[in-house]
Amino acid sequence: MMSALTSFLAMMSGEAVAQAGEAAAQAAPGAAGQAAAAGDAAQAAASAAEAQWSTGGTFWLPDTASATTQSTDMIFYGVLGLSIFCFVGITAAVLYFVIKYRARPGHEPEPSAHHNDALEITWTIIPSIICVFLFVFGWRGYINLATPPKHSLEIQVTAQKWSWNFSHPNGVNDAALHVPVDRSVRMIMKSQDVIHSFFVPAFRVKKDVLPRRYTEVWFKAAEPGVYRLYCAEYCGRDHSLMKTKVVVHEPGGYERYLAEKEAELQNIPPVELGKKVYDVRCVACHTTDGTPRVGPTFKGVWGTESAFTDGTKAAVDENYVRDSILDPQSQIRQGYPPTMPSFKGQLSDKEITGVIEYIKSLQ
Ligand code: CUA
Predict the structure, then answer these.
(1) Do 324 and 352 form a contact (C-beta atoms < 8 A)?
(2) What is the DSSP letter of 4?
(3) pLDDT digits over 158-171, tens only?
(4) Does the CB atom of residue 157 touch ligand 1 within 6 A?
(5) Which of ligand 1's atoms lies nearest the C-alpha of 236?
(6) Average pLDDT over the chain, rounded to an integer
């Protein structure tokens, strides 16, 4: 239900949903205080990125930026036109008959109409033919969407509460999706926790992302630009914040992006790397200003002692942070829910070291 509503709204206008999402985040009950601090930075970053976002499309549909959108849009407008035609026609007929056959002095009620073969055959056969047409077009479009072309670029997608991770063939990981223009891209998707849904309105693709199973979706971006990517399955408190962008690069730009990302990872000081990782991976649940969110804050925790739900205690040091990232369920802090997902296989040792150094720097 939520999924259907989200997608309907997003179809109406990508912009409106983004704003609704932010408004919902701000109004989230019980999270008001904590969300404000962590949310501000994220929202400032989001609005800075907003400037370059593509804002094409019509009243009904957002930009069409993928090779497969045409068949989807054709069916949509076909069904919309048909619905308007039927709605107007039926309403007009009802009004006409209500007025023409209204009860008034001097008019006897007429007996009910009898069987009319010609009429009944007509109103059975014409809609049946229309349904067959809709089915054939819809089915062909579906088969096309369900069959990624061979030799597509493959990107691994991991969804978790409440962020996305896109892993490229050369090992680069990013929270935003970068793809080349004019090349079919196959997303191989899995979830770390609950069901999420990968939704890019401009590409007209939406697919559930499930735990313990891979799902796939493909598209071929037709226009360079920046497009919105949503989670379209209600997945918990910060579902509305689980959105990011798709950057479609000009020819050569995607290769440049991969190379730059790789070089960045080689040369960056650990604290800065840790801050970068924090901004995309940790910010949903941990603050750096001392207020608790879903998880404890990162500020001032270094060197302090933590009490766990099993009664044991440990000092916050390098191995404590590393264990918390890779095997969070082994030590649950008292007073916090056991909701943190493992980042095993998602963060390199270098990135984990960065996070440790970053936490150290937040005194
Ligand atoms: Cu993930 Cu909603």
Answers:
(1) no
(2) H
(3) 998 888 999 998 88
(4) no
(5) 2
(6) 81
Kindly tell me the burial class for residue 11, based on how many C-beta atoms sit within 10 Å of its own C-beta (0-12, 13-18, 19 or more): middle
Structural element, H or E, at residue 184: strand 184-191
Check whether 65 has a pLDDT greater than 90. Answer: no
Q: Which atom of ligand 1 is nearest to the CA of 162?
A: 1
Q: Ligand 1 mean position to 196 CA, how many Å?
A: 4
Please report the pLDDT score of residue 83 as a whole number: 94
Ligand 1, atom 1, residue with closest C-alpha: 196
Cα–Cα distance measured from residue 20 to residue 39, given in angstroms and rounded to the nearest whole number? 14
Which residues are within 8 A (CB) of 3 and not within 5 positions of it... i.e. 6 or more apart? 197, 232, 233, 234
DSSP E strands, 128-183: 153-160, 163-167, 173-174, 177-180
Q: Cis peptide before 162, with omega less than 30 degrees from 0?
A: yes
Continuous segment of H or E residues that includes residue 255: helix 253-267
Scanning the structure block, which residue is given the tokens 């990517």? 229
Residue 262 and residue 48 in contact, taking contact as beta carbons nearer than 8 Å = no
Task: With a cut of 90, say whether residue 197 has pLDDT above it.
Answer: yes
Residue 128 CA to residue 174 CA, distance in Å, equals 49
Q: Is 239 in the pocket of ligand 1 (CB under 6 A)?
A: yes
